[in-house]
Design a protein that fits this description.
This is Hippurate hydrolase. The chain has about 400 residues and is α+β, with helices and mostly antiparallel strands. About 35% of the residues lie in helices and about 25% in strands.
Length: about 400
């Protein structure tokens, strides 16, 4: 059996960006083969699938994502990442497992080994899906487009988990729409450049960008009903190069989160209307360009399948299973179940030091103070996060696999 704590330390110290997960995929494939799985590599990039057939019975897919983020680690840990690689534009970029995907890989390898070592206790088929490129929401679609459904047995259920900043040892869930749909947009604005001393001869793209940014903030507050939910975030603005040059072009990058197709359509239409309208009001000679960089649907947990998983969790982790509200983060996990026409369930593992939450500490106050996913200071405690992560995957899978 793999020393999972040592594996986690190794993965955390050697993160790989989306689409570059060669080393991690190799570790995964070797571990699966050692446990007797049939292994298929290079699915949709560096995706890896492992198949363990054990007689008649349901087929369960267990999924983990493998990629890291372009973040410089600031945890101060002895095993902190010092990796710097060239990103897709060739720019040297620090890399960190700031979202816990190293824990996801570790837990799924542990679960795969546990299920392989207990084949006398269940029947059916286990398929482990180690997915690349979740952080840019492209990996699940890439695996499906590369024939994942033709390469492995068809699932009766698709299961996955994500480490979160709650108390380690706890398991959290939500039935129905659990995570939001995500749309990444790139907006290119066109003005008319010129000298900073003669703005009357230009169409100032800086002013145009500022107007667009401010007006976009009114979509959620003034166009979306209070009972609906949406988030519009401008995460990148690039306009101009020098104090005395009025630029003729600018770029904005947006993140949009919604739960329903109706609200999504309304938000996207409002973005288009505002961008076009502000450009016209500025006297721009050329219409803006709005490009969808990627889209991922909401993560929706099947109600019946969720009840089944939660029932098994309550037996395995008494007093440590909690329902939580839906989150506005996004995942591409739901693409797998949707493509297969199978129910899916996605839950969350606590990964923060439980001592931080000991009474009389206030749960919400602690959550607001500790580092969360995507922070340069984020890292889950290794135990009991690893042990519970393995147990949660095995428990959920065994809720389907025939005894």
């Amino acid at each position: 059996m793999t020393d999972l704590n040592r594996l986690y330390l190794d993965l955390h110290s050697h993160p790989e960006l989306s689409g570059q997960e060669k080393r991690t995929a190799g570790i995964v494939a070797a571990a699966l083969r050692e446990s007797g799985y049939e292994v298929i590599e290079h699915i949709g990039g560096y995706g890896v699938a492992g198949i363990l057939r054990n007689g008649e019975g349901p087929t369960v897919w267990l999924r983990a994502d493998m990629d890291a983020l372009p973040v410089k680690e600031d945890t101060g840990l002895a095993y902190a990442s010092e990796v710097v690689v060239a990103n897709e534009d060739g720019i040297p970029t620090p890399v960190m497992h700031a979202c816990g995907h190293d824990m996801h890989v570790t837990a799924l390898i542990g679960a795969a080994e546990t299920l392989a070592a207990s084949i006398g206790e269940w029947t059916g088929t286990v398929v482990t899906v180690f997915q690349p490129a979740e952080e840019n929401l492209s990996g699940a679609r890439a695996m499906v487009d590369d024939g994942l459904l033709d390469k492995v047995p068809h699932p009766d259920v698709v299961l996955g988990q994500h480490v979160a900043p709650g108390p380690a040892g706890m398991v959290f869930y939500h039935s129905g729409a659990t995570l939001a749909a995500s749309d990444a947009l790139e907006i290119t604005l066109f003005g008319r450049g010129g000298h900073g001393s003669r703005p009357e001869t230009t169409v100032d793209t800086v002013v145009l960008a500022a107007s667009v940014i401010m007006r976009l903030q009114t979509i959620v507050s003034r166009e979306i009903a209070a009972g609906d939910e949406a988030v519009v975030t401008i995460g990148r603005v690039e306009v101009g190069t020098k104090n005395n040059i009025i630029p003729d072009e600018g770029v904005l990058e947006l993140s949009v989160r919604t739960y329903t197709p109706e609200v999504r359509a309304k938000v996207l239409a409002a973005i288009n209307r505002i961008v076009e309208g502000e450009a016209a009001a500025s006297g721009a000679d050329r219409s803006p360009e709005i490009r969808t960089v990627y889209h991922s649907p909401p993560t929706v947990n099947d109600d019946d399948a969720t009840r089944r998983v939660v029932g098994a969790f309550n037996s395995a982790f008494p007093g440590r299973v909690m329902a939580v509200p839906a989150g506005t983060g996004s995942e591409d996990f739901g693409i797998l179940g949707a493509a297969a026409g199978a129910p899916s369930v996605y839950w969350f593992l606590g990964g923060a030091d439980p001592k931080l939450f000991a009474p009389p500490a206030d749960l919400m106050q602690v959550l607001g103070q500790i580092p969360s996913n995507h922070s340069p200071k984020y890292a889950p405690v290794i135990e009991p996060t690893t042990t519970v992560g393995v147990a949660a995957l095995v428990t959920a899978a065994r809720a389907w696999l025939t005894e």
